[in-house]
Amino acid sequence: MSAYQPEWVQADEWRALAARLHEGGWWLADLCGLDATDLGFDHRFEAVVQLLHREFKERTTIHVIATGQPPTAPSVVDLWPTARFMEREAFDLVGIRFQGHDNLTRIMMPDEWEGHPLRKDYGVGKVPVEFIPQPFMQIDGPGQSTMQGEAEVRLDHLGQVTETSGSSASDVQEVTSS
Amino acid sequence: MTTAERVVERFEAGGHGAYVESYDPRDEHMTINMGPVHPATHGVLRLLLELDGETVIRCEPKIGYLHTGIEKECEDQNWRGAVTAVTRMDYLAQLFNEQVYCMAVESLLGIEVPPRGKYIRTLMVELNRIQSHLVWFGTQALDLGAMSGVFYGFRERELILDFFEMVTGLRMNNGYFLPGGAWEDLPDGYERPLSKILEIMPGRIDEYEALISENPIFLERTIGVGAISKEDCLRLGATGPIARAAGLDWDIRRDMPYEAYPEVTFDVPTAEAGDVYARYQVRMVEMRESVKIVQQLFEAMPPGDHKNMDPKLMPPSRAELNRSMEAVIHHFKLMTQGYSVPAGEVYAAVESPRGELGCYLVSDGGTSPYRCHVRDPSFVNLQSLPVMVQDGMVADLIASIASLDPVLGGVDR
Questions:
Q1: Which residues of A are less than 8 Å from B349 in CB distance?
Q2: Which residue of A116, A149, B92, B192 is surrounded by the most CB atoms within 10 Å?
Q3: Class of B70-310+338-412 in CATH
Q4: Do B107 and A32 touch (CB under 8 A)?
Q5: What residues form DSSP beta bridges with B33?
Q6: Mean pLDDT on B194-205
Q7: Residue range B300-346, pLDDT digits in tens
């Protein structure tokens, strides 16, 4: 491995640089989100891009600084379509919005999930693993899903209701399968 | 109507509708779910298929069913303990995950692995490559109806797993490497089982080839099926045997060598067709080449330390613990808190059985990784599946998934 030289670019410069690099034969190997809270920068969110040049046998790293609320960076899916999944992952886990991505939805976490787990302010081990209602459960009332924050229903491994809060237990009925 | 009610209604209507997402009466296109629980999806891969009769119009992989948050887990471990987490990502190429993570940590620490450590690691990962390809061989044959393929593949895989058990104590998820080398030296008497594996493997690969390489049904089901061009591979980021089968002559082991690869000679097989059969041929030759590499490493195994003996990184030996109180304190400190790694970041990459496996590691100078991102080849390669199966039959989709060889533990991490 040659000397490792990362570079930082602003989000608005990234498109022009990416187009130049793409023209020069660089291939996008990896793209991931980074929450740089404790690393001593002025900014908090970055998209970290790993590039590979197969002829020069060289790698390079570009940090794209995503600013704004929510953090935003331009998408490079049109240049390197391989970034489609990677940008979705960075959006899902770190919460960076990629402008120009045609389907920026959650990829790892369930669609209804709140928060971005790889952010540094997202606690470890605090959110119980919960699942959306199973077909054999019919849940009436306002609590349709058992999302974090307003957890109404918890099921044990046999599908039995173990804990209810926010709504009374009578809202939950077992539907016998016919 | 809520989602739950809709699902209940589908179940009550005989269960057949449970897999159908939508139906368009104008062009008679039906959108159905294949998976997440389906024997041919090799795990919990869910494919949303838009079908016109049996022809696939559109295929969209939906992933995340096996997401276990290993990257987040790593941030909670110390530098050595995170090996235990990363080895569980791609569970068929477990030692590759450990290797790439350890290479990244070593590069941050600026330490060298002694030659014997490098040789042991390279030898073990090449055996791991054979093992992983044997699982692929078995499932590829099984998915195409050649039931017995899986028996043959798993027979030899068992020998390799037994060898892993002998060396590391575990068959899978070994946790055998650590930043600076390998936990233990190869055990006494490892030569006999290893030379036995090396002796029988070429003959056994001939046996597999005799079984299906020229089987007319196998040829019919694979030639021209699931083809992808070299340009599409580059565009969609496919690496490993998929890209090599499409004519992309690139192998990190040869082109950007690491560990003990500069000291061995091997060929990198390529093919032009890019279809399922080309990928089959490439992987078969790769297994033979891996046997050759292991043979060379075995013969040239250098003496010396199997890990970097820097006392700041490695816990003291058992004998020393019996003698010295300082050693006990030091051991306790290393085991509970671990060592610090200088602030910085690095990206390391190795050639796993499925392609480029990369590890992007950030340290803030503390005792645990600040960010550990793994570029898993299965995850990226999955994006080329829609291109492969476009306008093909559903049955050919099964062949394409098998030849893609995705490991969902690696896809979802």
A1: 29, 59
A2: B92
A3: mainly alpha
A4: no
A5: B48
A6: 91
A7: 999 988 888 888 888 888 888 899 898 899 889 888 888 889 988 99
| CA B339 and chain centroid, separation | 29
- The model's confidence at residue A132, banded by pLDDT at 50, 70 and 90, is low
- Match 């990629």 to its residue by tokens: A98
For residue range B83-109, list pLDDT tens digits in order: 999 998 888 999 999 999 999 999 999
The SS3 of residue B155 is: helix
Q: What pLDDT score does A151 carry?
A: 47
Residues 6 or more apart whose CB falls under 8 angstroms from that of A85 comprise A107, B379, B380, B382, B383
* Other CB atoms within 10 Å distance of the CB of residue B215: 16
Which of A159-173, B8-22, B207-221 has the highest average model confidence (pLDDT)?
B207-221
Within a 10 A sphere around the Cβ of B223, how many other Cβ atoms?
14
Q: Are B20 and B32 in contact (CB under 8 A)?
A: yes
Residue A133: pLDDT band (50, 70, 90) is low
Q: Cβ B348–A1 below 8 Å, yes or no?
A: yes
CA distances from B266 to A169, B114, B256, B376 (A): 66, 23, 14, 24
SS3 of A55-116: the string is CCCEEEEEEEEEECCCCEEECCCCCCCCHHHHHHHHHHHHCCEEECCCCCCCCCCCCCCCCC
Distance of alpha carbon B35 from alpha carbon B378, whole angstroms: 17
Residue of B256, B343, B360 lying closest to A48 (CB–CB): B360
pLDDT at A165 over 80: no
Query: d(Cα A119, Cα B70) in Å, to the nearest integer?
Result: 14
- Shortest CA distance from B2: residue in chain A: A144
- Which residue carries 């394409």 as its tokens? B400
In chain A, what are the domains? Answer: 6-99 (3.30.460.80), 137-174 (no CATH)
Residues B379, A85: contact at Cβ < 8 Å? yes
Identify the three-state secondary structure at position B336.
Answer: helix
